[in-house]
Every structure is written in C-alpha cells, then in structure tokens.
Amino acid sequence: MKVGNKRRVLSALHAANEHLLATLRLVLDGREHPSAQRLFVASDSSRGQNAIWFPPPFAGIIQMAKEGKEAYDRFEVQMNAAIAAEGCPLAELLRTRLTLLDGGSLTCRVCGLQYPKLWLDRGVCWRCDDDERLAGRCPYEAVPAKGKSKAHPFCPHEQLRCACCDAGFQRCDICRLAQGDGEAVLAACATWHPDVLFLDFDQTLCSTRSGADPLKGVHSVDAELHEAATKISTHVLTRNRHVVPIRLFLEERGVPIVGIHSTPSGDSKASYMQSILTQDARAIFVDDDANEVQDPEIARDTRIFRVLFQRT
Predict the structure, then answer these.
(1) Which residues 6+ apart lie within 8 Å of 72 measured at CB?
(2) Does 121 score more than 70 pLDDT?
C-alpha cells in the first residue's frame, strides 16, 4: 500500500519535472542561440500582474484559484447582506464567547466608528472601504500620509482600485493609467503606441535618490526603460537639477535622449509635455511619484497615458 502511494507521488513529480527540464533546456539553449522573442514569464513578484511558472499538468491550479475567487465573491455578498440586516459588528457586539473576536477597539478614519482590528485595514473599516470605492474614491485618502500629502490615482471603473495603494492594479485605458515597472511601461507602449515618452529620472529611469548627482556613487539604468528609449522619442522630465551630469550619465550608458528638462519645485510637469506634443500626438508619462502622475493638468490631457512606476 505504501509502495503504491509513493509510486503515484513519484510518477506525478516525474511528469512535472519533465516539463521543468524542458523549460531549463530552452533557457540554456537561448544562450547559444539568442532570440528577442519572449519564451515564457516566470516570477514571484508583481510586474503589473502576478505571474508564476507552472507545468501543463498543474493547469488545474488555475481552475482552483478561479473557484476560490468565485466562492469569495459569493460569500462576500452574503456577509454584507447579513450585516446590513443585523447591524454593524461594533466592538461591544463582537467581544463575545461565540465570536471570540476580542481585538480591542480601533477607530475608522472615515466613519469614526470603533471596531476590533479584524474589521479594519490601514485604519479604514470594511464598510467604508466598499463605500468609498463605489463612490469612485480611494478609501485610504482619509488616512494621513507621513510627510507631504500623497495623491491617490484611483480607477473608478470595473476594478475600483488605487494605483498607489492596491497591489495588482490593472491597466485602465479609460483612465489612461497603469502601475508597475519597466515591463508595465513596455506593455503600455505596445497598446498606446506613443509618439513621445516622458521619463522621470530619480527612482525611475535611474536608481538615484531624489535630486542626487548620478555621477557620484554607483547607479543603474532600468533595462526596460532603456529598451523603450531606443524605440521611441524620449525626454527626461525631472525635478533633479543636475541636468549636465544626467546627460553625461545617460550618454555613457548609451541611452538615447532627445531632451532633458528640470522642472522647478511647485511647477507642473504638464507645461513641458504640452510644449512638445502636437495636437494629434500620443505620449506616455512615467513617474514614481503619485503626486506627479495624478497632477490634474496631466490627468485630463487625453494625449497622455500615465504609468506610476515601481522599481523592482
């Protein structure tokens, strides 16, 4: 009996490993015969959307995840209906032997009611989270940001997600908004077909911190943004004042740039973009600062697609 069980397990592993070995051979062969074609995507991190490698025999995992999501959606509707009929789960109602949810009282930053911590996420209760999203607002706008106030580029369409606060934000062509790293920028270029690319410098095109001289220290250029710059007319649009060092840094690394513009603090980056773009031109603006991406002048310009950049 034990032999049979082990044999079944090993048979399944053998089938899966055959596909894994075939994939590894494909990768190794690519060293000798390089190709620009993307063979597969394998990752354990977010690149606009989560990706994971799995062999064909494990395709059932996708169906399991789909069924899990369907169950989640179904029970969420039932939960909301039950709570609407029976009342809010206030702290004094939840602190009972039956529920065992004694987590202390925390105040929702939106409605001001108190709940155990189980019912709040980042200071916002479960009900206000839904209500704010349905109203077309990021529920975390009410949560004070550390330091200067932070913008919340929110998609009020099907996904009801914030590009700044929500992982797994999907590109929205109606909002002209995406979130992610260089892969997300290349994907946006493939669908938006821009005539011009506007790239922020610090923590976007380059690994430099805000305002740093790129010639001092060791810094790198994002590979995907470098690739995009070789195909599309590209301008660097930055708050960094080291324009000459930036130009030398990019020239040394072979990054083709049409222009570099340092926008003074307090001025909108929209002015420079609008001076470059013709009436029928299309552009993609890439910046790691949500305040820049959500700039009203940029957000309402239908020629500009925005990407909130996240270096990986």
Answers:
(1) none
(2) yes
Contact assessment for residue 293 and residue 153, using Cβ atoms and an 8 Å cutoff? yes
Architecture of domain 177-309: 3-Layer(aba) Sandwich (3.40)
More confident residue, 252 or 89: 252
The contacts of residue 195 (CB under 8 Å, 6+ apart) are 232, 233, 277, 281, 282, 283
* Helix pair angle (182-192, 223-231), 10° resolution: 20
Q: Give the closest residue to 286 by CA, choosing from 194, 220, 208.
A: 194
Look at residues 175, 172, 161, 137 and name the one whose alpha carbon lies nearest to residue 298.
Answer: 175
User: Which DSSP category does 83 fall into?
Assistant: H
Using pLDDT thresholds of 50, 70 and 90, give the confidence band for residue 82: confident
CA distance 123 to 110: 8
Whether the predicted pLDDT of 165 surpasses 70: yes
Q: What percent of the chain has pLDDT over 90?
A: 52
Q: How much is the pTM?
A: 0.73
Is residue 109 a contact partner of residue 76, using CB atoms and an 8 Å limit?
no
**CA atoms 296, 178, 139, 158: torsion sign:** positive
- Give backbone dihedrals phi and psi of 266, rounded to 5 degrees, phi first: 95, -20
Take residue 105 and report the two structure tokens written for it: 């009282």
Distance separating the N- and C-terminal Cα atoms of the chain: 48
Q: Which residues pair with 197 in a beta bridge?
A: 234, 284
Angle at 68 between CA 65 and CA 73, to 5 degrees: 130
Alpha-carbon distance 19 to 108, whole Å?
50
CATH 3.40.50.1000 residue window(s) in the chain: 177-309
